[in-house]
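Form 7-S
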Amino acid sequence: MKEARQQPWAELLDYARWAPSPHNTQPWKIKALSGGEAELYYDPKRLLTVEDGDYRFFFVAIGIFCESLKIAARGQGLEIVVDYVTDQITGDAGEPQLLANLSLRPSTTQEPLDPELIKARRTSRLHYDGNPLSELALSELAAEAERFGHEFKHSSDRDFIKWVLELDKETLFDDLQDRATREEITSWFRFSAAEAEKNPDGLWSECFGFPGWLLRFFLNRTYLLELPVVKQATMAYYSRSMTGVATVGWLAGPFLKTADWVSAGHMLARFWLVLTKHGGCLHPFGSVITNLRSHHQMAERLAESEEGDRLVWLLLRLGYSREPPRSKRLAVADLLMAVEDRPRSSIQVEQFA
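Output:
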């Protein structure tokens, strides 16, 4: 009985578990109530309470996860209805908290994106090959963003790309000087293959192209970066990992409230899979968005108006690289909750997305 109840959700989770999340925290869990009904929970222990204190990018990740479920379901002739029950998130709770109710329904909707793209999708922090993203890919990415009310812009100007890469580098080193930020980042790093296997989440050093011992050394001794010669050498080392970038892009649109963040996530899931379909990869410069000073510099350089609910909410490099290592993921069994455990969110709100 338990297997029959969980099987449809386990099959969909086998796709959706590969959805990206900030620092690969994978904050989601599903409780299968029946073959057609389930509950979506978030795990408070998997929140970034420092770097994402207002949980904007947590909700973006939830949108990506739910859209991945939808794409996988449509591949089986099904549709998932997501009914959110709260937009109040807490990192203080000791157990998973209910976020949404999920329902499976028969569907005849034709999904243009192959669910297998979800498993093929990658974040590439490796060297890119120096070729700009194809015009066809760029036009399809812009169209996908527009469907959700967002705007995708891009540039292949060498001076502009150099400026973006410098901004990303400066922001990273600026963030590492903040103790709370540094400690949160470090807690999610997996510095060896053994660590990544033991804890199949977080930031595996292999995906960064840096030796794990070197990352551990500097994250635990950031005071060394105050020495000009050390900082200069370290920044030069980091810069060499960014060679071959010929296209940078940014996304702008409604990004003021929870519904905006979730919708942006649904869009980003599809945006990324369109890129994957064209053989491309991307690397988000998340620190530039969350660091207030860098965000202001970015918006000013882009000459983007950030009025009302409109915000430039993602900056990224796009292009082509060799196939990058894939971050580890929690097993499906680790994401399925037992039905007898029924923690409930204490706040009920109207559907927000």
